[in-house]
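Friendly challenge for the regulars: who can give me the structure tokens for this chain first? No prize, just bragging rights.
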Amino acid sequence: MTTWMITGSSGGLGRALAEHVLAAGHQVVATARDTAAVSDLTTAYPRTCLAVRLDVTDQESISSAVAEAEDRFGSIDVLVNNAGYGYTAAVEEGEDDAVARLFATNFFGPVALIKAALPGMRRRGTGLIINVSSVGARITLPGGGYYSAVKAALEGLSGSLDKEVEQFGLRVMVVEPGSFRTDFRGRSADRSSTTIDAYDQVLGRTDGQALGPQRGEPAKAAAAILTAAQSAKPPRLLLLGTDALSGFRAAAAEQALDVERFEPLTRSTDADS
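First reply, four minutes later:
Bragging rights claimed.
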């Protein structure tokens, strides 16, 4: 039995993961800004589920939540940084306050939680940190620049962190979902109130351009995450969904093409001796 602390447990992927991990017999610290949203989980699993109020933008709330989790279950074995939301704007349209809030929730919040949970993991010499990113960090769609940036920042930090904590017996896994059947495009989405007509067409604001189907099933994603987490050597990167896989491969191929085309120019910058 392991103890999972999952942020954003009130809905979407976080909720599905909490349900799946509990059903598998593990302990879950289900966090949400309003614990009433997860009270049914504590009712169904009174001995293995703890509902904790958490605002990932509030350091005091983070410290209190981690302490409460460790007091109840003794440890946090798996930390899942899942809480977050999207933001749509052309780069020129981005509003400073909105972008700051996006980074506070989607990047600095997870960083603060990692720093709060790491001391206990290091002492025990075991632990897994799962940072939920997005394939958007790679495919960089028009209008998604700020969201891509915040997820790319989380992934960059995750890669360095994994190398830093491997010596302690800890691992870091990045999860890149594609489009899933959650409220990410609804309640969990924000958009700039500033619009510049010149970007209407490329952002699809003039022709009713659809965002595409949401093929991903959260319950299946939860099962995949648990399976990966329980493997002898969890992956550093887990893609979820066929759209994530195709997007990853297309972005990698496009980058590789440019690298190969300009390889001579790249090599030309080394010192002669």
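The longest helix spans residues 96-124. Residues 180 and 216 are 4 Å apart (CA to CA). Your move, everyone else.
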